[in-house]
Amino acid sequence: MNLRTIPRAFVDGYLKVVRVPIDLVARRRGESAELAVDRADATARAVAGTVLGDHDLQADARRRRAAADQREQAVRLRAEAEQERESAGQQAEKRRSQAQSKASDRKQQAAKAESARKQAARRDKQRAEERSESKAKRERLDALDSKADALEEKDEALTAKDEARRLGDAAGRVKAARKSR
How many domains does the chain have? Predict the structure, then answer.
C-alpha cells in the first residue's frame, strides 16, 4: 500500500459506510432516489479525487457517473415502453368498443344475406389490420425491452468490473501488508 492508495481506500471505505443507511432509504423511495444517491457518490469521489490528486479515484467517479447515466436511460426506456403498452391497450379497447358498436348496428340493420356477407368481410379485414398493427407494436416493445435488457447487462458488467477492481485493490493491500511484516 503506498501513499496514494491510503487516501483512496479511506474515501472508498468511508463512502461505503455512509451509503448503507442512505441506500436503505433510497430503495424504498424508488429508482430515482437510488440514481440520485449513485450520482452523489460519484460526485463525492470526483471531488475527493481532485482534492487528493488521485486519477484512479477520478476515473472511478467517471465510471460510476456513466453507469448512473445508463441506468437512468434504462429507467426512461422502461417508462416509455410502459406508456406505449398502456396506450396500445387503450387504443385496442377503444377499437374493440367501436367494433362492437358497429357490429351491433350492422346486425340490427342487416336484413339480407348479401348485407351479412359484406359485413363479415369488413370485420375480417379490420381484424387483420388490428393484428398487423398489434404485431408491429409488439415488435417495437420487444425491441425496447431488448435495449433495456442490454443496458441492464452493461450496468451489471460495470458493477462486476468495479467489484473486481475493488477486490484486486483489497488483495493488493493484503499482499502488501504481508510483505511489510
Answer: 1
Residues of the domain holding 94: 5-180
pLDDT in tens, 16-51: 888 888 888 888 888 888 889 999 999 999 999 999
Angle at CA of residue 87, ends 75 and 79, nearest 5°: 5
Q: What is the DSSP letter of 112?
A: S
pTM of structure: 0.46
Q: Over the stretch 64-93, which tens digit does the pLDDT of each residue have?
A: 999 999 999 998 999 999 999 999 999 999
SS3 content of the chain, % helix, strand, coil (to 5): 95, 0, 5
Q: What are the DSSP calls for 74-98, one per residue? A: HHHHHHHHHHHHHHHHHHHHHHHHH
Closest by Cα among 165, 160, 163, 158 to 70? 158
Distant-in-sequence, close-in-space partners of 11: CB < 8 Å, separation ≥ 6:
44, 45, 48, 52, 57
Euclidean distance between CA atoms 56 and 36, whole angstroms:
22
